[in-house]
Amino acid sequence: MAAGKELTPSEYIQEHLTFFSEPVAGGGGFWTLNIDSIVTSLLLGIIGIGFIWWVARGATSGVPSKRQAFVEVLIEFVDEQAKAIFLHGDRNRFVSPAALTVFVWVVLMNAMDLVPIDWLATPLHWLGLPAWRPVPTADVNTTFALSISVLVLSLYFAIAVKGVGGWIHEMFCAPFGSKPLLWPANFLFNCVEYISKTLSHSMRLFGNLYAGEILFLLLWMWAATGVVGAIFGFFLGLGWAIFHILIVLLQAYIFMMLTIVYISMAHEHH
Predict the structure, then answer these.
(1) Are the C-beta atoms of 11 and 3 separated by less than 8 Å?
(2) What is the structure's pLDDT at 25?
(3) Which of 23, 51, 58, 240 is the most buried (most CB within 10 A)?
């Protein structure tokens, strides 16, 4: 809660659901950057990549350290998932590294939900920042950016594998057949498929993390009401945080798996 301010419950929630935004080139609405989501996601990406690079740089062929063993288990786990789904060539060239990047990055962004928001918001208020939302995946712009990136990769691999002509032929001739009368239906079906996959990929992650963010705000707000509220808020918050760890990992796993599935589907011929 902002220092020196007594907020009502609705004001407290509204304050912590406000983005630190900056309009682009004097615009607004769609043309607005959520600086908090961008900065937090970039920092977490650097931390995740930096940690794995640091461990890999010091890896040995002998008895591994705990850090090395953890990273090896993580890489092996992700690679096994890619191996089971991607059957169209060398998965180690792109698919497994991309899946590892997605999983680690989304886990770190999701895990920001476990940090009490006032621990971050209050110091930032002291620095003069009016608002800061620390969970990038509770911002639909972040999850859409991720899912659109996967869509672009899917289109790239579909064209790279089948050629421009093969991809266009598939767009107009599958799945209902190649008769000219069916071309509009095939094209519309494929467009809907691409759009629906991107929407569901994004909204599933956003919805779960946004709901978790709201629940944490309610619990932290209760903890600020007094000694009894603080005790109940602490234990309820602890219980929800333990359960939320499952959501953090599960949603990152689902996002990673769908990324592998969509890239694999792009390699298939119809």
Answers:
(1) no
(2) 66
(3) 240
Q: 219: how many CB neighbours lie within 10 A of its CB?
A: 21
Give, to the nearest 10 degrees, the angle between helix 9-16 and helix 183-223: 130
Give the 3-state secondary structure of residue 33: strand
- Residue 132's pLDDT band (boundaries 50, 70, 90)? confident
Q: Which of 62-66, 182-186, 236-240 has the lowest mean pLDDT?
A: 236-240
Q: How much is the pTM?
A: 0.90
Q: What is the pLDDT of residue 4?
A: 45
Which amino acid, one-letter code, is at 229?
A: G
Q: Is the peptide bond before 175 cis (omega within 30 degrees of 0)?
A: yes
The residue annotated as part of the active site, out of 147, 200, 202, 264, is: 200
Task: Identify residue 63 by its one-letter amino acid code.
Answer: V
- Catalytic site residue from 96, 147, 202, 208: 208
Q: How many CB atoms lie within 10 A of CB 199?
A: 12
In the three-class reduction of DSSP (H, G, I as helix; E, B as strand; rest coil), residue 225 is classed as coil
* pLDDT score of 81: 96
Active site residue 208: yes
Q: And the tokens for 205?
A: 């992650």
At 126 the three-state DSSP class reads helix
**DSSP readout, 107-168?**
HHHHHGGGS-HHHHHHHHHHTT-S-----GGGSHHHHHHHHHHHHHHHHHHHHHHHHHHHHH
Number of other residues whose CB lies within 10 A of the CB of residue 42: 11
> How deeply is 12 buried, as exposed, middle or buried, from its count of CB atoms within 10 A (0-12, 13-18, 19+)?
buried
Model confidence pLDDT, tens digit, residues 140-196: 999 999 999 999 999 999 999 999 999 999 999 999 988 999 999 999 999 999 999
Give yes or no: 204 in active site: yes
